Amino acid sequence: AVVSTQSTGMAVQQALFPRIQHMKFKAHSFENMVMIKDGRTFTVNSPEVYQIEGSQVYLVGGLPTGGLKLEEMMEQLKARGMDPEKLQEQMEKAREEKQEEQESDNSEDASQAEKNVKLLMSRGNITKSEAVALLNEHDGDLLKALVHLSD
Fold first, then answer.
1. Dihedral angle computed from the Cα positions of residues 44, 46, 52 and 54, in that order, rounded to the nearest 10 degrees
2. pTM (global) more than 0.90
């Protein structure tokens, strides 16, 4: 299967894994994306982002660059004339807001789990108990459960 999208003004075609070729995807465009893993920051310029329709599952493709520790990134910001302390304060404030958001999201997690179960039931034509068991088998990972349905 091939998905065609418009990304930064250019037509892009992306071959998808055969197991998920029957699923519908919605393309999203981002200029860049910053990820933090193991205390290191990575940037992906012009990432290809696809969302499985009807779910909160995203597939992200692109070449990550960087891999700097936070302290190294702060030194580079200083060298560019930026105020890392102010940026760090903004990051801490954003982290606090994210934590508050996650606390409120915990109550929404149950409704998201129910949405995942309903999605599995409709896509796989299975019962609710089968959908719950399938999600449990895949540690709540909706994408893995959907791929398992197509096997």
1. 110
2. no
